[in-house]
Specification:
The protein is α/β, with parallel strands linked by helices and 411 residues long. It folds into two domains: 223 residues, no CATH class; 182 residues, no CATH class. 56% of the residues lie in helices and 7% in strands. It contains 18 helices and five strands. The protein has a five-stranded mixed β-sheet, sandwiched between helices. It is globular, with a radius of gyration of 23 Å. The N terminus is likely disordered.
Length: 411
């Protein structure tokens, strides 16, 4: 692994309590929150054992028992809550998942017409065909997860206010849903999941630096205090077409994903380089390709932000349906379908990383933290940062002062 961020701390227990004074020495004189992050890899181990039993020709009764035991583990309960019947996009139940896994005993793997299982099928087939490689990876993760977690917490908390601690559980499993996600479950706990299916590249290599930075990225999501502002303004009671509600919905993920992408995933930008120049940018090749395209298209993306904010601030009649339709078709991964491009990352990640990176470089870390607690400040602070840095053509990137002030005073 490049650099020494990960290897700085080595812990010998699965549950770890990291002293915040070590994490954020710049704030050593104040009260700093403690972080507690645990991990659970038992579901991944149980999955390997289940596929091994299938390959060894164990009876159907034995395989059933192994699958039932695996699906009874807490990690699968959390994943089922996240991707089961409540999921509005391609839900998959544990019953469907069990039938899918059992079909590996035969020569015909059956996804039962389920869209999500269909997308995951090739990865499960690769796992079944190359099970020793995946078992080796699971064992490596088990041996080093303490090290990964301690380093990732250190990186994530470098970019959070001193009074914010992390409290989460990291699940490593063969998931029924996605590649990685952060989720607050009905038990009130924050979970971060990594699917072993996605942890190796096409050459079946595991990039530990990529994993470490992505873990920091997800941990930052758990800690970032964006909900403080939403709660302060009574977001849940705002009507659907309220201007402040639309602004929060527009800006929330721009700030959340932008912070994690810039400072944890170590993203480069149009205005600022990678925060850690000698370390990798943690993105898959398609994500890097998207990123370079977005950098080249910053003017158009920034103009779109101005258009959205003008719509929110000044429209005589704010049509929430029209707003969200425009938003999804340009700012989310759905834009790839609209524009006939493959987007592994969407514009929210890029734009947030770009503007927040410049704010940090010119105005400092405290300005970033102010934006977290009131993201109406972002246009005004971006203007200040542009005027201070004076990058080429910066005048065309500025928000109109009246618009920035209107956003700042949305209520």
């Amino acid at each position: 692994m490049k650099g020494n961020r990960l290897t700085a701390i080595k812990l010998k227990v699965a549950t770890y309590h990291l002293l915040a004074a070590f994490l954020l020495p710049a704030f050593a004189a104040g009260q700093i929150a403690e972080s507690r992050v645990t991990f659970d890899i038992s579901a991944a181990e149980a999955f390997i054992g289940t596929f091994e039993a299938m390959q060894q020709g164990k009876s159907e009764k034995q395989v059933d028992s192994l699958i039932d035991g695996m699906l009874a583990l807490h990690a699968y309960a959390v994943s089922a809550e996240r991707f089961g019947a409540k999921n509005q996009i391609s839900p998959v139940s544990l019953e469907e998942y069990k039938r899918f896994l059992k079909s590996f005993i035969s020569d015909s793997v059956d996804v039962q017409g389920n869209t999500r299982l269909g997308m995951l099928k090739s990865r499960y087939v690769d796992t079944y065909s190359n099970l020793p490689d995946y078992k080796k990876l699971v064992n490596q993760l088990k041996a080093q997860l303490n090290e990964y977690i301690s380093g990732a917490v250190q990186l994530a908390t470098e970019w959070l206010p001193k009074n914010v601690g992390l409290n989460a559980e990291v699940l490593v499993m063969f998931d029924i849903g996605g590649a990685a996600w952060a989720y607050k479950a009905s038990d009130g706990k924050d979970y971060i999941m990594y699917s072993v299916l996605f942890l190796m590249d096409d050459s079946r290599n595991f990039d530990s630096d990529m994993f470490f930075k992505n873990l920091a990225h997800e941990l930052h999501h758990v800690g970032i205090p964006l909900n403080s502002f939403a709660n302060e303004v009574g977001y849940d009671s705002l009507p659907p077409n309220d201007r402040l509600k639309l602004y929060i919905d527009f800006m929330y993920d721009i700030v959340k994903e932008g912070m994690a992408q810039k400072f944890c995933s170590n993203a480069p930008g149009k205005f600022t380089p990678k925060p850690y120049p000698n370390e990798i940018y943690a993105a898959i090749p398609k994500g890097v390709e998207n990123w370079n395209y977005f950098i080249s298209d910053f003017q158009a993306i920034n103009d779109s932000v101005k258009s959205f904010l003008n719509f929110i601030a000044y429209s005589d009649s704010v049509d929430a349906g029209q707003f969200y339709n425009r938003f999804v078709r340009y700012w989310t991964w759905k834009a790839g379908e609209v524009e006939k491009k493959e987007f592994a990352l969407d514009r929210r990640y890029y734009y947030g990383a770009e503007v927040l990176g410049l704010v940090y470089t010119t105005l400092g870390k405290e300005a970033l933290f102010e934006i977290m607690y009131d993201y109406r400040k972002l246009p005004s602070y971006f203007n200040l940062a542009l005027k201070k840095a004076k990058p080429e053509g910066y005048e065309s990137f500025l928000f109109d002062d009246r618009l920035a002030d209107s956003v700042l005073h949305l209520k």
